[in-house]
Amino acid sequence: KKIARVNFCSIDKQGEKCAEYVEKEINAEIRGTLANKKEKPTGKCIICGKPAKEVVYIGRSY
């Protein structure tokens, strides 16, 4: 099982379209963020290109 650590625009309502893209086009799910540590994103959202506000982990379920 592989997990990708990526910059993401938002895990709130603002990021819903990007999350839908991950699910439908990449066939993966956003697994969440680190629970014990707030990671600081550097750069832009990998989907929409807006400034990233979160670092999320994306993976497929088997």
TrEMBL record:
Record-level Gene Ontology MF annotations: ATP binding; proline-tRNA ligase activity
Proline-tRNA ligase class II C-terminal domain residues: 1-62
GO cellular component, one term: cytoplasm
InterPro entries tied to this protein: Pro-tRNA_ligase_II_C, Pro-tRNA_synth_II
GO biological process: prolyl-tRNA aminoacylation
Pfam families: ProRS-C_1 (PF09180)
Protein name: Proline-tRNA ligase class II C-terminal domain-containing protein
Source species of the chain: marine sediment metagenome
Taxonomic classification: unclassified sequences, metagenomes, ecological metagenomes
